[in-house]
Amino acid sequence: MSAAGAAATAATESELTAAGPAEAAARPRRTMRAACTVAKETIRFEERPVPVPAPGQALIRVETVTLCGTDLHIWEDDYATELPMVQGHEFCGVIEGLPEPHPTLAVGDRVAVSPILACGSCHACSIGRTNACDRMSVYGCYDVEGALTEWMAIPVAKLFPVPEALPAHLASLCEPASIAMQAVNRGRPVAGEKALVLGSGPIGLLCTLYLASLGVEVVAADTVPERCAFAREFGAVDTVLIDPAVPFPAPRQAELLATWTGGQGPSLVFEATGVPSSLNNALQAVATAGRVVAVGISDRAVTFSMRTLPVKDIDLIGSRNSQELIGEAAELLSRNTRQAEALITHRLPFDRVGEAFETMRSRTELVGKVAIDMPGAGRGAAS
């Protein structure tokens, strides 16, 4: 901590000691704890000033943060983000201060947060696709420190009310759910059509859940049997277990897909793994004149014949982040709390955030989403 920060902390502690218990409880806290990733696989807890909201911002007490693969890469120092950085971009919290009255938000409301701050002037922003902004900042990922801290000052426009049916440890899933919904929307699904979802990790499962809610019939695929079984809980009518060492689809899988689609192949395929061979599988499996949505991300190269897209007349569509679908995601999750609960396979307190990252890269157990319960979860206003 800096000398100024230490002095502020000492002053605060001195004031609280001098005051009576009731007066001390009424004083707002001036410092908070933040978990800062300072170097590869190294977390340092720091004491920092509680943020003072600027005009147009609200003060949010962070309740829950969930971690994703991007967070793991940042922690491993294998990402474009420069360290040190306070991570965390999937989060929810409670409003503890609003700059002015708001038509749909009030102090005490639980909110999910859209973590993307778009520039507003690039081509993508100019056509309303702020999710693909060329110069975006993202809490806990690019330029702006994230939610592994007790309080944050957030633009009011980035706050979305959480339905009462959705508890705090599930509300942080609104961000990944919004990414899945964006990918599904990019695919232009039609009720009654048949879709194949390659990958039954959190994004693939949430794609499956949303597709099923829209009346789309889904077959899900993965390389892990437990994940295939998981996909049925999210609405898949059938599953396919892929052997990475065997060309896809294998004969019995080809027969299943042909029977299911009347020999046409699925008209809509989602690639949700980021594995190059999986994108090739998607292009192979999709029906002629079908759509393939690539939502999985990787730095690895993919190779396919230049004949593939024109001869099959395929729409190959990329999907990134979401166009402020956090509110819609909250509604989807509130209607499917059993599935949302199943996604959270591990919950750990703030003090064990380093262990949470270790758990994420486990190769010995099935890990879905890891949730971090922040110190203020379930408490009232900051005090």
Describe the structure.
- The protein has about 375 residues and is of the alpha/beta class.
- The protein has 2 domains: about 30-175 and about 345-375, Medium-chain alcohol dehydrogenases, catalytic domain (Quinone Oxidoreductase, Chain A, domain 1), CATH 3.90.180.10; about 180-320, Rossmann fold.
- The protein is built from 14 helices and 19 strands.
- It has helices at about 5-20, 20-25, 70-75, 125, 170, 175-185, 200-215, 225-235, 250-260, 275-285, 310, 325-335, 335-345, 355-360, and strands at about 30-40, 40-50, 55-65, 85, 90-95, 110-115, 115, 135-140, 145, 150-155, 160, 195-200, 215-220, 240, 270, 290-295, 315-320, 345-350, 370-375.
- Strands 3, 5, 6, 10, 11, 18 and 19 form a 7-stranded mixed beta sheet that branches.
- α7 links the parallel β12 (about 195-200) and β13 (about 215-220).
- α6 packs across α7 and α6 (about 175-185) packs across α12 (about 325-335).
- The model is unreliable at about 1-25 (pLDDT under 50).
